[in-house]
Write a structure and sequence with these properties.
Bound molecules: uridine-diphosphate-2(N-acetylglucosaminyl) butyric acid
Strand content: 25-35%
Distance between the termini: 6 Å
Radius of gyration: 21 Å
Shape: globular
Helix content: 25-40%
Number of helices: 14
């Protein structure tokens, strides 16, 4: 078993370059099969989630060439086969192959998706969207069988602005006959990145980034070249880390506008941030004011930064209130932080109160999911002594080169086989 060992209490300085966005890449890789030509996607992070998706491309018979940060995919020879459960259940985003295969072949069979356990994670909105486009959805044991004689445009209203449903419906609708309108669509930057990719292939999608997306179906999609946007969640995680232990720490290669909800909270707490065109420079302040926080869909405060941000709240003077509105079970990091001495009151599944400032003490803790794991890394960096983090496969799913990046700015961090 691999564990991460971190010795806390060091000041970090220098520069961290942010990788391409995981949550864009995991949609772009499945979307690549919609093309009848060769697509090049650059700035794809080397993380286990993108590896698992390229394994699926390999399994389907696509020619995949990975050269450092780029992936070249030629899908001319793919076959529409049932992806083995042991590959598709490795990650949630395997469900983007549903939309893509349905869009291309009008038929898809797929096992129920896996992913971090942060709530029930139903996909009813995805399936409702496919049905509106003319597909029938059947369940056979633990897999879906989705068929359509023909896919046609439709008006689809999402009950919740789901990121996954918005992307999956775009993938299924892009080659359908006629016009599809997605209302109450998700507005996250990753949606815009996926729509741009499809448009680069020749799709006709407008409105991505707003709550109404219009998709005019086309017959074929061509090859293209596309770049993944910087990962706003990786950037946000390291920005929070800089507020905790940074000295002139530069978070580089970012889009600052994607992180405004975070930076405005940090400023409210008393953290000074130099905001450049594509970077932040941050130094830890002497003390932090407590703040209240609520996670929301973009451009609100991202749920994916809620867990790392909790660590910062343990250092604020007074009691902060945090409300998680997106997921119903995203407080698995709380017992782990409590092991390190954090004073947190779990009010219910959506609300916590954090009282500080508290000196955290090193301990052996678990990364219960990806962002909980990131929270453990931040807690370990400020704790006295050496922390051991178990179940680190969750962390490696989403943070490219975390050991190298943090070591380069002065952290004492390593992965050890035990
Ligand atoms: N929901 C439904 N029905 C659906 C789809 C979603 O009820 O058909 C509910 C979910 O249960 C949840 C809420 O809607 O309560 C939000 O779900 P959404 O579909 O927006 O999330 P997702 O697409 O499954 C993506 C990211 C998550 C991120 C959320 C919210 C990927 C692969 N995952 O998930 O990222 O938290 O959007 O921004 O893009 C992470 O990176 O750590 C992560 C979990």
């Amino acid at each position: 078993m691999e564990v991460m060992e971190i010795s806390g209490g060091r000041t970090l300085t220098g520069s961290i370059r942010i990788s391409g966005a995981k949550n864009s890449s995991v949609a772009l890789i499945p979307a690549a099969i919609l093309s009848d030509g060769e697509v090049t996607i650059c700035n794809v992070p080397e993380i286990t989630d993108t590896d698992a998706l390229t394994d699926i491309l390999d399994f389907l018979g696509a020619k995949v060439h990975r050269a450092s940060e780029s992936i070249v995919v030629d899908s001319k020879s793919i076959e529409n086969k049932l992806i083995p459960e042991d590959i598709s259940s490795k990650l949630r985003a395997s469900y983007y192959f549903m939309g893509a295969l349905l869009g291309k072949y009008h038929h898809v069979e797929m096992y129920f998706p896996g992913g971090c356990s942060i709530g029930q994670r139903p996909i009813n909105l995805h399936l409702k969207g496919f049905e509106a486009l003319g597909a029938t959805v059947n369940e056979d044991g633990n897999r879906y069988i989705i068929d359509a004689e023909r896919l046609h445009g439709a008006n689809i209203y999402l009950d919740f602005a789901s990121v996954g449903a918005t992307i999956n419906i775009m993938l299924a609708a892009v080659r359908a006959d006629g016009i599809t309108m997605i209302e109450n669509a998700a507005k996250e930057p990753e949606i815009v990145n996926v729509a741009t990719f499809l448009n680069n292939m020749g799709a006709r999608i407008s409105g991505a980034g707003t709550s109404v997306i219009r998709i005019e179906g086309v017959d074929t999609l061509n090859g293209c070249f596309h770049e993944v946007i910087p990962d706003r969640i990786e950037a946000g995680t390291y920005t929070i880390m800089a507020a905790l232990v940074g000295k002139q720490l530069k978070i580089d290669n970012i889009i600052p506008e994607h992180l405004e909800a975070l930076t405005s909270k940090l400023v409210e707490m008393g953290v000074k941030i130099e905001i450049g065109s594509d970077y932040f420079i941050i130094t830890k302040p002497d003390s932090y004011k407590c703040v209240n926080l609520k996670t929301q869909v973009f451009p609100g405060f991202p749920t994916d930064l809620q867990q790392p941000f909790t660590v910062l709240l343990t250092q604020c003077k007074g009691t902060s209130h945090l409300e998680e509105t997106i997921w119903e079970n995203r407080f698995m990091h709380i017992p782990e932080l409590e092991k390190m001495g954090a004073k947190i009151n779990l009010i219910d599944n959506h609300n916590i109160e954090v009282t500080g400032p508290t000196k955290l003490i090193a301990s052996t803790v678990k990364a219960t999911d990806l962002r909980a794991g990131a929270a453990m890394v931040l807690a370990a960096l400020i704790a006295e002594g050496q922390t051991t983090i178990c179940d680190i496969s969750h962390i490696l799913r989403g943070y490219e080169g975390i050991i190298e990046k943090l070591s380069a700015v002065g952290a004492k961090i390593k992965i050890k086989e035990i």
